[in-house]
Structure formats: C-alpha cells, structure tokens
Design brief:
homodimer; alpha/beta; six-stranded parallel beta sheet; 44% helix; 16% strand; elongated; DNA-binding
DNA sequence: TTGAAAGCGCTAACAG
DNA sequence: CTGTTAGCGCTTTCAA
C-alpha cells in the first residue's frame, strides 16, 4: 500500500484538512506547519490518489476520444494533436477505437461516460435521429469531428462541400474531358455515417453540373481498382480520377504503376486529406489539405470551454488548402 | 446528477448490498428481488460510476501507455494493436506522448501511476541506473517495449542485433563494395535511450568485420542527406545505404530522386521496421519487418498476467522477417 | 437471503 | 489558523 494523506496527517500531528491545505496551496494555513507537511510529504514520496480525488471533486481530468482506427494516417495525426494539446491543460486521453463498428462505438461511449471522463471527442460512425438523441442525452460535453451528426451538436471540420468544388475546379482547369469520383465509402451509406464523403460527392456533382463538356461519373465500390481498369480501357478521352481520400488515390497509383500507366500523362489523379506520407510519393499527389492538427487543437479548446461551462460556436469550419501537386 | 445504486436501493426498498448483488451477478440473492432490481435499474438507465468502483476495488481497468509520438508510423501501429487487444479484456488505454523528452516521460509516468492505472506499457527515452531504479520502485506492473532498460525489467521486442546482421547479410549478397550505416539517432546516444539503434549498429559492425573486402562506415548525423551526397560523390564503388529506420530510407529516396540517382542501379538502400506505408513506395524498399502488431498484443497479454500476479518471461523476443524488396 | 456498517482516499463546509 | 464532520458512489464483510 502506498502512503496516504491520512498517514501524513498522523505523522505531522495535524488533521487531514490541514494536510489538504498544505498540499494544494490553499489559504489559511500557518507557513511553518505547511512547510513541515510539505517536507514530510516529499520525504515519504507521497503521491495523491487521483482516483479518490476524482470521486471527491467530480472531475477526472480525462478526455475520452473515439475514432475509427489510428493506423489510418488521418486519425493518427488527429489523436496526436489532441493529446499534445490536452496535456497542456492537464488532461490525459482515454482513447478508444471503434473500427467502424456502430455497436462498438455506442459501447465505448457508454464506457467512457461511466468512467466519468470530463468530455468526449468523437468522429462517429453512427448517424440518424436516434443517435443524435442519444448524444444529446449524455451528461457530459461532446465535440464531433469530421462526420457531422446534426447542426445541434458541436462540430469541427472543414467545409467539405466547398473543398470538393475547389478540387473539381483544379482538375477542370487541366482540360480533362472525363472526371471520375472514386468514393468506396458511398457503398456503406446505409449503415454508416459518411457525412464527409457525401458532402464531397455533392460538391463534385454541383460543380460539374455548372460546367459543360465534361463527362463525369461516380465509382462507389470497394472493388474500385477493377472499376478503374474498366473505365480506363473503355475510353480514350483524357480522364482524371478524383478520389475521396488519399489512400484510395495511393492504391490506384500503385495499381497503375504495375500497368505502366503514366501519371498524369495518361491519367490524372487527385486525392483528399493531405496525409503526411504524401511527402514520400512520386509524382506528388494533388489533394485537399485537411488541417487535421488545427482541428484537433480546436476540438480540445472548445471541449474545455464546454467543460468550464462557457459557450462555443456550434459549427466551426477550419480553412483547408488546395494542393496542386503533379498528378493532375 | 445521475442515478446511483443508493437511489435504486431506496426505490426497491432494499439495501445497497442487495442492489450490488443483483447488479453484479453475485450469489445469495432471491431471484425475484434480483429481477426487480434489474428491471428498475434498466428503467432508470442506471450506469455504475466506474470512478467510485475503482476507488473501492483498487483497480481501474486502465492501462497507461507512454510512447514517443503517434505520427510515427511505428507507434501508431503499436498503439492500435495495444488498444484493440486491451479492449478484449475490458481495459481502456490512457495514452500519453513524451516526444522524446526525458523529463516529460517521468512526469507522464508519475501522472499515470497517480491515476492508478493497473499497469504500464512504455517505450522509454530515459535510460541508465537511476531510471532503472525508478521503474523498479513503481508500485504497478510494467512492460518495456523496444528500448530495453535492463535485463531485470520485463521487455518485449525483436533481437535487433541478429536482425541487423541479417540485413547486412542481405546487402552483402548483392555484391556491394561499400556499406554505409545511416543512423542519426546515434547522435543522441548521450541523452537518450537508443538501445535498438545501438544494437543495430553492433550487428552491422560485427557482421562486416567477419566479411573481407567490404568497406563500411557510419553516418550518425541528423544532417544525413548532405552526408549522403558527400559520400556518393566521393566514391565510385558500388555503395549501399543501410538505414536504421524506414523513415530515414524514405527521406533519402526522396532526396536521391530529385538528383535523378537510380535505385538500386546506382545506389542500394535498405531500411528497418517495415512500416505499412512502404506498400505505396516504388521501388519496394528492402527492410527488416518488425512485427509491431504482435509486439503490442504480447505486451498486453504479459501485462495482464503481471496484473493478475502471474509470472512471465523477463525477455520476450518476437520473430522479425527480412524483406528483400527491390531497392538493394 | 438480506441489512448494516465500514472503508477506499480525497475534498469541502463549517465550527472553533 | 486548525480540527471535525460529512460525503463522493461503490464494494465488502459480518451479522442477522
């Protein structure tokens, strides 16, 4: 057993209340007794039990985080930023991964709430009214990142719709005659929250509707590599593949490399997210840089405001950046 | 305020002890009262307060993790594996990042201990006797990953020395006349624990000592790109760059690509770790595959054994794999 | 089968 | 300036 404040009180011949005042820099204590208590505490290498403190104070100084998976570059960068920022304020992270499993997500949120984390940051896979209601009934503050659930629940992300239109503008400026939006997650739209991809899709379509003379279509299959083969063999028009995620773009590039298809000479490619490993890839992938670090930092800032009972703006859109690259 | 077991007791007209028996499937309770309590609990959406439970039971069902940084692929994969495995046993993770700051590492470990995590998994940046003693004095079980601190402290990793010799064997088999070990972390050997890199260095040297006719040298500078330029301009022998980490290899490949140096025709490159993004890189990098998922899983398994008071083997070496690639 | 009471280690409120 | 008391919500022990 480790040493408690009671032990210190006994040894110093004072009450636990006095020990508390000394240890936590509270007023109304004799400097000499304070000094003595601090000395004894140090000598005995006293460490307060933070579990007990949490129970007494009703705060744990922890933030619960629920995301898909941190092998995913995007979430690795996000969680990294959240941890670094939270630490500055004395908060530690309870991080949990739902692996796109809606049931698991609910279980994890329940568990974190039961552990009395002071707030939650989630990138949800669930969606819909029931989920919205569930979140609203939580007793703790919450910030949603990426996949918006409703306009009523605090959200931080980028304006995916506008970013997607910008992506299409960039591609169009390169005189492609045919643009394909590659977005496998659309396949899962029934069961999963794919808000961000749906916004990107809308932006893609709206932008192209306004432009004449460019054909476009959508690939919404996880078998997208074969789809790409089929599309490219079928048409001899200058085609660009606009991918709703850098990872899909990288997979396609790897695939085309095997087929000796040259990028961007024979086909153009654009991604979305601006994950950090693009640094190592040739040709440099055109993409939308999603400021994930900033999003993480803002999420922590806003969450802490909520924890303190302060108010925040319900929707916070961070500026993204169009990265030209060499692949389109 | 949320509802407590006391409320349930009051409503059901029983004592808190009985409520506990019902809720936690304990014996010696009348099935009918149990049923009633469970029903009421469900109706009121009762959730036990896990902080209170932790205080009462003396266990938190959390595991503390301290690593460098999870933008680093290696740690992202590691933490991902640890989380997934720990969750199976009902443990959540408190993950913290020390960013190679020794002071920070100590503060984080202290904090986690104060939060009464049931065990720790760390990849330490500290080293030496004082640190070893500090770790031994911790009141909770601990597993060290990667950077061994001492043979007395439970460790999981690969046999870096042997792996490094195997790497050199692979390179040698390709008839290089000059092999350069690129290992910037050596620069920090005074202040940081770079056990794994030092083992790799030893393996490199020992293997080459046994082979005649191959020149070798070591680059231990963070300015390694310029060093590489200098080395390559100086010699016209067939040279291979053996990097103590895939990231260094990727940086060099990117650098050489700009200089239009062909790999492996003009210079060979080999990495270490086998991080997942190599999938997207051409030419395929030769490397040592470090089974980080397995290491994470084993770390959790062993830690839980320690938590339960069971015994484990102090040193656990997982099998690595030599990946031939096309870069050497 | 159930209840009562004590305790986990800390904080907070009030009285002295 | 200091001590006392109660309480956070749960588990555990012992007695009934």
């Amino acid at each position: 057993m480790s040493i408690t404040s009671k032990d210190i009180a006994r040894i110093c011949g004072v009450s636990r209340g006095t020990v508390d005042r000394a240890l936590n820099n509270k007023p109304r204590i004799n400097p000499k007794t304070k000094e003595k208590i601090l000395r004894v505490a140090r000598e005995l290498n006293y460490r307060p039990d933070l579990v007990a403190r949490s129970l007494a104070k009703g705060e744990t100084m922890s933030i619960g985080v629920v995301v898909f998976d941190i092998r995913n570059r995007y979430f690795a960068q996000l969680v990294n930023a959240i941890e670094t920022e939270a630490k500055k304020y004395g908060y530690l992270l309870n991080i949990t991964l739902q692996g796109k499993d809606p049931e698991m997500e609910l279980r994890l949120i329940d568990n974190l709430v039961a552990r009395r984390v002071d707030g939650l940051i989630i990138c949800p896979v669930n969606k819909g009214d029931a989920f919205e209601k569930y979140l609203k009934n939580l007793t703790i503050p919450l910030i949603v990142i990426g996949n918006m659930v409703s306009h009523d629940i605090p959200f931080i992300g980028i304006d995916e719709y506008r970013a997607s239109r910008d992506a299409v503008k960039l591609i169009s400026s390169k005189k492609y005659k045919n643009i394909v939006f590659v977005c496998p997650p659309l396949k899962d739209r029934e069961k999963e929250n794919i808000y961000s991809h749906e916004e990107r899709l809308k932006g893609f379509i709206d932008e192209l509707k306004e432009r004449k003379g460019i054909r476009y279509e959508v690939v919404d299959s996880w078998d997208y590599l074969n789809e790409v083969d089929r599309l490219l063999s079928r048409s001899d028009e200058k085609t660009a593949l606009y991918c709703s995620g850098d990872t899909f773009a990288l997979e396609i590039m790897k695939h085309l490399r095997k087929r000796n298809v040259e990028i961007p000479n024979q086909v153009g490619i654009m991604g979305f997210d601006g994950i950090d490993i693009l640094d190592y890839i040739t040709p440099r992938l055109a993409t939308i840089y999603n400021p994930v670090e900033t999003i993480g930092i803002k999420a922590v800032e806003n969450l802490i405001r909520l924890i303190k009972g302060e108010s925040i703006e319900k929707q916070l859109f961070i500026e993204y950046k169009v990265m030209e690259g060499e692949s389109v």
